[in-house]
Amino acid sequence: MSETGRHEDVPEKNLPGERDTAHGGAVEPADNPFADPGLPPHEPRIQDIDERAAKRSERAVAFLFTLSMLATVGFIAAYVIFPVDEITYIWPFGHVSALNFWLGLTLGVALFCIGAGAVHWARTLMSDEEVADDRHPIEAAPEVKAKVMEDFRAGAKESAIGRRKLVRNTMFGALALVPLSGVVLLRDLGPLPEKKLRTTGWKKGIRLVNQSTNLPLRPEDIAVGSLTFAKPEGLEEDDHEFNQKIAKDALMLVRIQPQNIKDKQELDWSHEGIVAYSKICTHVGCPISLYEQQTHHVLCPCHQSTFDLADGGRVIFGPAGHALPQLHITVKDGFLEAVSDFAEPVGPSFWERG
Which stretches does UniProt call biased (Basic and acidic residues) (predicted)? Predict the structure, then answer.
């Protein structure tokens, strides 16, 4: 490189001129072999000059959007028709879940057809004429804003969305239906609760069984100041739904001197001071296991919600939102049994609860 900073092996005519700048200034070499050729002349497409070709493209776009709608309907139908555990052989994939295969296939077709329809519409029916625009300052001037709105209206007109009603309507139909696939998938979050959150396994005539000994409970089995855990008769630990059922059916019994019971309904629903309450905390559903016999308070070990079993199971401390539900009990043939189910849903609050 010479003292002037130029490469000696580069021809002089190919070097930049004196008016170059570092930030995009004009370049004016004496003889510039790389002059801007400009935009090539616009060549119209066949759809621009032949309305029949434009109609064919319109029908092709409408077909793709319609196929997307049918695929979305097929997605929903497949979700209803195929059992979740059905396995089928599909070449070349082998043995696969029939539900997953058809859900994937129909959803893929629905999304692909929307994309393909939009691309074909843009390439064959929308305006394809290139327009060069000079860079403008970041802050838009009023006349620029007016130009943008004018360009938007021109673009809407050139897209033919108003004139090509078949394309427009089928596109809106496809876009409106495809989100239903996601709505249907929400159904897979789990079974609908129906009334399962409001009912338990307790009903009239069901005996109370000691959860530790698996024997029916008699009144004399419950000592004053003791805490006994119970479950409905017939609920066994080898039942495949035991964990789901005991999460609602778990019961705790304490014996309080009748004169120490403050709530009248609690006294009426007890038997000789034996009161039965849900063991499930009304905060987040933890099992309650700590009992203070002098105060008749029970404490949830998870978040320290405290309930008064001598006063209707009401909350006296902690984040629990409502009192523990009480089970109405009586004695028949010498054994403790339920008179009915809980009057209130057990466990934490849920949004449908009144």
Answer: 1-22
Supply the pLDDT for residue 58.
Answer: 95
Q: What is the DSSP letter of 79?
A: H
Tokens in use for 188? 């897979």
Query: Residue 261 and residue 309: Cα distance in Å, rounded?
Result: 8
Question: Can you tell me whether residue 78 is helix, strand or coil?
Answer: helix
Q: What is the CA radius of gyration of the chain?
A: 38
Amino acid at residue number 222? I
pTM equals: 0.51
Contact 287, 248 (CB under 8 A): no
Angle, vertex CA 117, rays to CA 153 and CA 69, nearest 5: 110
**143: pLDDT confidence band, cut at 50, 70 and 90?**
confident
- The whole-angstrom separation of Cα 233 and Cα 216 is 7
Gap between the Cα atoms of 85 and 69, Å rounded: 27
Please give the Cα distance from 277 to 290 (Å, whole number). Answer: 13
Whether the Cβ atoms of residue 345 and residue 197 lie closer than 8 Å to each other: yes
Q: For residues 311 and 298, is the Cβ–Cβ distance under 8 A?
A: no
Going along the chain from its start, the domains and CATH numbers come out as: 46-131+141-189 (no CATH), 208-338 (2.102.10.10)
What are the strands, taking DSSP E only, across 70-212? 87-90, 94-97, 208-210
Q: What is the largest CA-CA distance in the chain?
A: 117
| Chain centroid, CA 174 distance in Å | 22
CA dist 140 and 154 (Å) reads 19
3-state secondary structure of 123: helix
Tell me whether residue 76 is exposed, middle or buried, using C-beta atoms within 10 angstroms of its C-beta: 0 to 12, 13 to 18, 19 or more.
middle
- Residue 336 CA to residue 78 CA, distance in Å, equals 50
Beta bridge pairs of residue 231: 209
Lowest-confidence segment of 34-38, 201-205, 222-226, 311-315 by average pLDDT? 34-38
